[in-house]
């Protein structure tokens, strides 16, 4: 094995790779703004608990408050009885009548919830809503997908005054103070209130105990996190505020468009102004995604026990730990046994470590324009396999390129169909990914990357290079150029996939890129691929499509007839047009080499082909004559065994479906599944019998 190949481990292990590169990126400051060129900023949502309190304060106060409220509220029903007795004794109780009520109860405690009328703080919202509505109407703020602007407008055009006070222990406290006579003073601090209203130090002031609504505090997020003070002179000198505000993109779910997005737009446009004094928008684009649900489309919640922690998918988790996590802190502890049972059934071995890249790719691939995203563990597993595919393809490339001549400049004169095709397909993949990112269709970006790397580069181009690199008759120059194309297309593919799969691509790029003279500290600072229309070759793509179709047809026939891969097959072609014949002539050497074909013969439309196994590619009929390729008696015996096996399976299911008791008692989904399986067996029986008839004719 060569030096570079040894740098790439035999198997892909994401855990160590991710630890290594995350540490490196942090140490080198790659997560910090460069302060060079135009800024691009994405909004990051704030945490739910705001203010300066840390978790210890919140935990301690929450426990004390819960215990106090519980003991106080436990006495309310006894107090009512005493109150009724007092009313009767004093003669001011008119009558008692029975009523049937359905009082609301707490979902956790189960105790009755009663309304308590208190004074609240409100914001007169109409003056704030007006410019926020105009910003979306004028296109200063755009929603992606666009239909969510209708949801925004429906709320904003019917907006009501906003109650902003909450009776909680955490949050920004209402900046209002009261004196003994109930007078209210509002200011930034008690000191400001006293100074502004000439209140002496010996007059006691008490701050309102309510806190601001979470969404009020969150609505200040875009500018308050960048050091905004409200002082015009100071804010003009604030680098971060002037560089990163307004931000470019806000990424959020549709369920908080009104709660958070609308409030940020209103608050920002009220407090932040452009140089000409007009209201400044907080962001230019609102990218709205769906909500992640489980594989059945159910909302993930603790009470259902269907929550998945992304870190468990990334790092893995054993079964017992997973069960403990899913059954701890339930709103209804009685559900714990049911949740434990379903968890053990769904994850009997726990969850293996899939790595960050596989999980990220899954999220991107699922990010369609719908309101609901069904999360499927099989997709994570599939994209982990995709990461392995990239890894193994890299090892092959390394082993065939290290310490071998590699072209250092593009030599299109040495390109043949495979190189013309893969370079052309790369340009189209780059264009598709570029368009997908521009329109916030991360699912289409992931799909284009996946299809190009797996289906075109790995499955076809890598295979097409093997005969070339192993053929002693191929010139050294041609081999060197093939190696260069292998490396350069993979290097471009790594840059294409990096935003979605950062760790894997960084690890490979560091070793592969220098082999074709590309340097740099990190792939994240390398230029993103840009398509070159001049390298698109439509004829090469058409020829390759024809080649793939013919190879697939012959491979399917070979599999149906049970022929080994080593045996060369004669192929008969019929109904080919002159253009198709010209195309087949261009691809004939590759077709023969990859499909293991010894000869190609064109039949006229009037000719009757001999008894053959056949397929169709476009308008062209493909025949492989059976005579001389198989032993009819042995093949009939093999097919008879297959027939007997499938017939037995068919009869078992048919018997069940004929049983009225089974059909009546079994779940509808089970019965439907049996019917589908029976239809499959009927189809298999028909095919086996047809094959037996053909073989018998020999």
TrEMBL record:
Residue intervals of the Aminoacyl-tRNA synthetase class Ia domain: 20-74, 114-376
The GO terms this record gives for MF are: ATP binding; valine-tRNA ligase activity
Q: Does the keyword Metal-binding apply?
A: no
Entry annotated with the keyword Isomerase: no
E.C. number, please?
6.1.1.9
User: Residues in domain Methionyl/Valyl/Leucyl/Isoleucyl-tRNA synthetase anticodon-binding?
Assistant: 419-569
Q: Provide a GO biological process annotation.
A: valyl-tRNA aminoacylation
* Pfam families given in the database record: Anticodon_1, tRNA-synt_1, Val_tRNA-synt_C
InterPro entries recorded:
aa-tRNA-synth_I_CS, aa-tRNA-synth_Ia, Anticodon_Ia_Val, M/V/L/I-tRNA-synth_anticd-bd, Rossmann-like_a/b/a_fold, tRNA-bd_arm, tRNAsynth_Ia_anticodon-bd, Val-tRNA_synth_C_sf
UniProt keywords (A-Z) are: Aminoacyl-tRNA synthetase, ATP-binding, Coiled coil, Cytoplasm, Ligase, Nucleotide-binding, Protein biosynthesis
The family classification in the record reads:
Belongs to the class-I aminoacyl-tRNA synthetase family.
Protein known as: Valine--tRNA ligase
Q: What is the lineage of its organism?
A: Eukaryota, Metazoa, Ecdysozoa, Nematoda, Chromadorea
